[in-house]
Amino acid sequence: MTRDASIRATALFIVVVSAVIVIAAGFHRDLDSSFFVKLLFDDAREFAHAGTITSQFMPIGYSGFLGSCLKVGGAAGIPPCQAFLYVGVLFSAFWFLALRGARGALLTIGVLAIILHPVLILNVWRIHDGNLTALLLLGFTATGIAFLRSRSTWSILALGVYSGLLFTVRQNTALLLPLALFLLYQGDPERGKKYASRAAIFLVSAAVSIATVSGAIKGTPFYVGGQGPYNFFAGSNEYTAQYLLSNYSAENSLGNALAARGFSSAQTFSSWLSFPKATYQRLAIEYLTHHPIEYAKLAALKLVTLLRPGYHTVQNFTWNSLEGLKRFSKIVLAAPFFVWVFFVYRTRKRFFEPGNLFVFLVAILYLLPF
């Protein structure tokens, strides 16, 4: 099969899978109640009914999208609406892999790792921002690669738009803004003569994207929710490792970490949500500046936590059991990471080229604040 034929065949396969998921979401409209982020749904419901979100905790990008779906089709309209996010993820992954030069078996493996990822499929029926985040991250990364290929103004505009939209969904993606600016500099063969104008186009398009979403949902041009500092401190304290190892999540480390700093009354989930975000931010930065080596270890542990199939040894463990199914599922969920490692291995001679470093740093900088 020629390279062009492999691209067409993969694109056709994506179209078929997309049609199947969209039709399935149209027929089966019940939401998955076992995985339901109530804070996001409450914000979405308020936006659908009142046209605004008064809560100051969660990011607003996904809730605004979800609220629009609710307003048009009610709760039953959410799965069909989110099916198109899944479709967007597939085509964004295809675009990214094609830009990276993947063809034939490499392209097929890369696309299959995304298409068959169970969480992406299940998120069609869940209240969770995972698919929207994946769509925007892939778009951000693909437009960055597109800029390195074309140096076009359109790719810079798109990079800015994706950056702004990402910030409204996941505020930790603010770390990607300086990376994008560095990419624009690396992509300028004359090192600076066109950089100022390119940086200005990028920053303006990112700012306009943020202001548009924030203005439409919150009535203010710039909004920062409390969840960003909340997650930052949960992932940056001396108890983080303990809870990552035992619970796969560091959120419950907040009780011990706040008590150790004199905030002994903040021991419930509601008190954590209402705790001042500026204090979370300050405490996290203090830990980072005083314990940089420990923070680096935590970053590595967070990556390992994404991949490890089980967090304790079970007596008389067998794969033919519920515990075995959980561990197998964890391995499947981690498959895209191992596919990415395979891609890096296959292109190792060009690893330190700007495009490869950009992809690698996107993954690392997105993960660090959690």
What is this structure, in a nutshell?
The chain is mainly alpha-helical and 370 residues long. It has helices spanning 3-27, 38-50, 61-73, 78-99, 104-115, 118-122, 130-150, 153-169, 176-186, 195-218, 227-234, 240-247, 253-260, 269-274, 277-290, 292-307, 322-333, 335-346, 354-367.
List the helices and strands and how they pair.
Layout: H1 3-27, H2 38-50, H3 61-73, H4 78-99, H5 104-115, H6 118-122, H7 130-150, H8 153-169, H9 176-186, H10 195-218, H11 227-234, H12 240-247, H13 253-260, H14 269-274, H15 277-290, H16 292-307, H17 322-333, H18 335-346, H19 354-367
Helix pairs in contact: 1-4, 1-5, 2-3, 4-5, 4-7, 5-18, 7-8, 7-19, 8-10, 9-19, 11-15, 12-16
Account of the 3D structure:
With 370 residues, the protein is mainly α. Helix content is 71%, strand content 0%. The protein has 19 helices and no strands. α1 runs antiparallel to α4, α11 runs parallel beside α15 and α12 packs parallel to α16. The protein is globular, with a radius of gyration of 21 Å. About 1% of the residues have low confidence.
